[in-house]
Amino acid sequence: MSRFPWRAAGNLMLACPVIAFAAAAHAQAGDAASYPGQPVRIVVPFAPGGGTDATARLLAQKLGDKWGKQVIVENRPGGNTVIATQAVARAAADGHTLLFANSTFAINPILSANLPYDAYRDFVPITSVAGGPFLMVVHPSVPADNLKGMLQVLREGKPGEWNFATVGGSGIGRIAGELFALQSGVKLQHISYRGAAQVTTDLLAGTVKLTIDPPNTYIAHVRSGKLKALAVTGKRLASLPDVATFAEQGMPEFDVRFWYGLLAPAGTPKAVVDRISAAVNEILEQPDVKERLAALELETLPSDPGQFQAYLRTETEKFTRVVKAANIKAAE
Known about the structure:
Elements: H1 5-34, E1 40-44, H2 51-67, E2 71-75, H3 82-89, E3 97-102, H4 104-111, E4 123-132, E5 135-138, H5 147-156, E6 163-167, H6 172-184, E7 189-193, H7 196-205, E8 210-213, H8 219-224, E9 228-232, E10 258-265, H9 270-284, H10 287-295, E11 299-300, H11 305-326
Parallel strand pairs: 1-2, 1-3, 6-7
Antiparallel strand pairs: 3-10, 4-10, 4-11, 5-8, 5-9
Helix pairs in contact: 1-9, 4-11, 6-11
């Protein structure tokens, strides 16, 4: 027996955390090795038919093929993505319920201090998936064929005469539109929709005249002449090469982009998160995936959990400046 019993006790106390850590690490490794043990749900905060939904379904199909398990896309629109996000925050932290978020995830905490979840405390980032530009699209009745003509129409209009449609009351689409209005000095009235398909329907009908939105939903209609595309952020689109960028048309300061990413409920074992992240990043390197995303005018954005977490923080900081400058309020 030790001559210093307190030292023996101290050694045992020091050993306990090591034993506990080793047991936890072994349990996590076991969880990851058997993951997924049941069907996986990817919750999309938007209605079917838009770019977010299409990208999530492509990812779900590929993950299902890779894991040999069913991966289901569940659309839960409404509440400016809050309904779906809250549902995932409250789900079991075992990696079988995931959130397919877009840029709105980083915007909502800026607009509301009363969210039913904490964007950073209640979630663990897995990986960014893809990102893309914004396209200005108008109804053919609008007497403008480029950005300069559109600015003239807007500036000559009466206050409140012109509206713009986006998905969600205060998401990334609205931020893009409000930032455009702020930087160009025009007045626009915002109209919120539950999904891109609904925006497209009313835009084709002429119920609304203008949107600044991700391009994939509108490309076919622009090519057919049912809609007109006037400008794009970033670089020219491969699918619409004749549409000049905002920078080329005199607005280099307007360069907003959006992203999609995958998150899990806080407490999901790190080994499971890493397994999902590795699987998604492997899928994003597949040539057919790159090709299908390019057809949606998206670029892959593979990252590890740490990189995606840092990116989310940067996005929130950037959007905070935009929200304050444009005086954007939370959707009611």
